[in-house]
Amino acid sequence: MSQIIFLHGASSSGKSMIARALQHRIDEPFWHVSIDHLRDAGVLPLIRYRRGDFDWQSDRAKIFDGFHKSLAAYATAGNNLILEHILDTPRWAEELQVLFRPHDVLFVAVQCPVAVLVERERDRGDRPQGSAERDQATIHLDRRYDLEVNSVDDVDANVRAILQAWHSGLRRSEFSQTLA
Ligand SMILES: Nc1ncnc2c1ncn2[C@@H]1O[C@H](COP(=O)(O)OP(=O)(O)OP(=O)(O)O)[C@@H](O)[C@H]1O
What we know:
Blueprint: E1 3-9, H1 15-25, E2 30-33, H2 35-40, H3 46-51, H4 56-76, E3 80-85, H5 92-99, E4 104-111, H6 114-124, H7 131-138, E5 147-150, H8 155-168
Parallel strand pairs: 1-3, 1-4, 2-3, 4-5
Helix pairs in contact: 1-8
The structure holds adenosine-5'-triphosphate (ATP).
């Protein structure tokens, strides 16, 4: 059984910042994984999707299906994961719950006030404007977490809270329902 710390929050909510600090602090090796890493490494031919050479909408489902299965493969091979992701598509939560069933998942909400999200999104300028606010209004509905942190709080304090929850072994999220 591997450990998965799943940071779930809107675009610009601060998941990456927390994930990096957590990976630096935690006392076991954890991979930090995000679909953004595939994007930033040039794995996906995004320029050509944007240019219209290929149809993103028709390929999106298989891209994320492969990403989700790769996460399970990493974990099943014995690798611990800090996953940052946005469950913005119907069925993804259920799919990941099944894929992560053999593993110990700490499901963490990364919350952030909308006004701060909007400001961060504007400042970074590399995300579609409005997506953070839209995420924040939708992605936390019906989710059940082990822990919620607010990214306006100090990053180190959030990392400490996550480590404490992880070490406690208490799991009550929708992912723990499916523990083997
Ligand atoms: N606690 C914080 N205080 C100040 N700025 C922050 C904080 N957390 C994140 N930011 C800033 O907000 C922006 C988005 O942060 P980050 O990349 O961590 O978010 P994210 O949730 O991973 O976003 P995405 O899902 O869009 O990749 C960055 O410019 C980052 O510097």
